[in-house]
Amino acid sequence: MDETYTAKVRIINPHGLHARAAAQLIKLTSKYECKAGILNSRKPEHCSQTINDKKYVDAKSIMSVLCMAAEYGHEVEVATEGRDAKPCLESVVKLFNSGFDELN
What are the pLDDT digits (tens) for 13-29? Predict the structure, then answer.
């Protein structure tokens, strides 16, 4: 069975996970072979990808990420599973914690 990694991150950029930020996320997660998903507990109805028996939004799909409607201050759970899952998760957490380079 593939390793699964999860982390909770808060959206700290003022405009939330809008189109430009979502595009950065998709570009980053698409570099990895693993599954990558995001769960916004405030909008769980958009989740369609299963990772470790839990439903997530596909973090490699721009439409899925945008439909999640994650706003400033929301806490989201990021999950990765499979080959290179750990470095993918670490990169995604770093991107969220940087505010998608929108803080300055």
Answer: 999 999 999 999 999 99
Please give the structure tokens belonging to residue 75: 């806490």
66: CATH: 3.30.1340.10
Residue 39 belongs to a domain: yes
pTM: 0.90
Please say whether the beta carbons of 95 and 16 come within 8 A. Answer: no
pLDDT tens per residue across span 34-78: 999 999 877 666 656 777 777 888 999 999 999 888 999 999 999
Phi/psi region, residue 27 (left: phi>0; alpha: psi -120 to 50; beta: rest), is alpha
Question: Does residue 78 belong to any structural domain of this protein?
Answer: yes
Residue 51 domain boundaries: 4-98
> Known catalytic residues?
18
The number of domains in the chain is 1
Find, among 103, 104, 101, the residue nearest to 20 by Cα.
101
The answer to whether residue 104 is domain-embedded is no
